[in-house]
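Minutes, methods subgroup
Present: GH (chair), OT, SY

1. OT presented the first of two proteins processed in the latest run. Sequence and structure tokens recorded below as shown on screen.
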Amino acid sequence: MEPLEALVRAAQQGDDDAFARLVERFQAFAYATALRWLEQPQLAQDVAQEAFIDAYRCLPALREPRAFPSWLRRIVFKHADRQRRRRQPDALDDVEARRLVAATPGPEGMLEQWQRQQAVRAAIAALAPPYRQITTLFYLRERSYADIAGELDLPLSTVKKRLYMARLQLKERIVTMRPPTPNAAQNDTLTERVRFFLALKRGDLLQVGQSLRRLPALITAETEWGEGSDGWYWPLGNTALGWAAGTGDEPLAALLHEHGAPLDEPDARGQTPLVRAVQMGQAGMARWLLKHGADPNRRTAAGLRPLHLAVIQGRDALIPLLRDSGADAALTDDAGRTPLDWARQKGLPASARALGGDADPTARPGSSAPTDPAWETGLKIVDLLAPLRRGGRNGLFTPLSGIGFDVLVAELARRLAAVDGGRAVQVGLELGDFTTENRMLQWR
């Protein structure tokens, strides 16, 4: 077996094959760790996949290659905890209920699980006191190396050495007591999915094609990372073609189309690739999708159509393209508004003219045209350096948002409600590495 340290260093230097071998070596470990927390095999597989993709991105920051297993374990715990916190109880249909009952262990399975737990505890209890104490703190109480060293008043190197020796003593016993892991085919699937998603982020068409030939089901797989290719927030649940549409990667889209990617299949958010291209302002990609048969009138889960979104997002250059491709400007959204209604409501004369109408600012439902387009907040620093427009959206993208930002937003909301009788909506978007927050404020 290839030494772990050499494998990690090769992966850190950009060797994707080395990272794939790391996935193969540690996928059962990652799955078992996630399964311990989530107790659901499918969720545990998803978490293991997310953890490896996250590990690939953060691997250059790992200073000690020998610490890769414990480092990966912390990443798995992070994703498993996030999965547990965001998981909501859903009503089960009859089929899912029967499947859940069938998967529940019977008396024999429960007895076997109890015996396995007792055997593990007995194996730990049989260790010498110094090894038993550190093993209990690290695995059962989930303390870090640094916490254990501080609690026991030991050097960090001593803690690591004792834990290493304890693992050696437990290895022969624990190997037969591991939690159930996916079969070989599922293991191969996990490795291939990780290869596929990493190739998507790199734009590696050769690897994408190879992965699709080995595992055709990847054509409908959904992305699991929360950061785009350019570093901005990127929503989860995009199909591969949705990713290509949002990033404007026409060669990738062509390759996916050759492998049978459906052009009008909505993703987990109910959005088609054409909708994604319109949202991201990818005119070339939108043209390619329409040329190859994408439906310009397909509704999203929110009831909007590509032409509505072109107006809402201010993509005036896409409006003629969509109309020439058959987009019907008379179709309405769930609220009964046409694209022209949106242009008038937002006060966008260029969009209105492209739709064959004119923008009348007095047509905004429930309000009259403001006499002053700027909103005077009374905060001199805001009014002078960052004036806010009435009826518009004002975005702040900064890695420095914190308490000061929240205090400012709260004061603006208070003044808006108390003085102008308006409403403020604050939306926070979070990057996968928690280093940046993107916030958008909408004033009405």
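2. SY then presented the second protein from the same run.
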Amino acid sequence: YYDALDAFRIMGIPVEVLPYAPPVNESYLPYNPYHENPDVLKRLIKNKKVLIFPNISGFNQTDSELIKHLLENGGTVIAFGPRIPMGTSYDRSLIFGIEKLDTNKIHNEIIDLHSFDKNFGNNKRWELGRVKLPVWKSTGAKVIAVFEDGSPAVVLNKYGKGKAVSILTDAKTAAQKFPNLVRDIFDDVGIERYVDIIGTNKNTDVAVTKIENGFNVAIINHNDTKLDVTLKPLIKTSFQNSQNWIDLVSNKEIAKLKNNNPLKITVMPKSFRLIRMHE
């Protein structure tokens, strides 16, 4: 989990750690519920939460049922490899649309098959170095990206009304080697994001809040050196309006830009910036 949290810090994407509350009648130590909590399921679906599984090998009965019912009701899950979770009450090949073969291979490149990299130019290939991973095959999932040998690297499977995405490297490798592809996949499956935060690392924390006609973004720099960060708005804006960037600590305007042009800022060592963008 630490590596997964570091991965999202590197990509500048804030995440939540959601505790699984048992049903009220099973709410006693050690909080190992025997039955799925329908209130949790309703809340996840209502709030459009996307569940991220960072290299988890499998789930027990209660968790398996929650994931299966979440997908059946239109939810989204994203699993990072090299382990994709098996379930007690679901078939992994049906949920994720892939099957692991009894072999490993060293990969050195990922190739985007669907031109997802819309926000960062036309790059469709990413160097991995030398990464040893299990080999998978699709059992019905749509292959979004492949390794250099043509085997699946990223797949999307539809189950019920929902979507299950498998990114077959671990989260930290994905964040370090092909973060732009991961961001675009998140956008494609409906994760609600308002700004790309480029230039962060594992020693930073970020938070983003939507406001009317804009957003607030906080960046905390735990490094001993300054951090140069680029903020690229993702929200739809009116063509004729300018986007005003305000430093909420000093309450001073930083810039006035148009057309979702990015803003470059510096965060000093052991410090933070709190910025607002609004039309």
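Chair's summary of item 2: The chain has a mean pLDDT of 92.
Next meeting: continue with the remaining queue.
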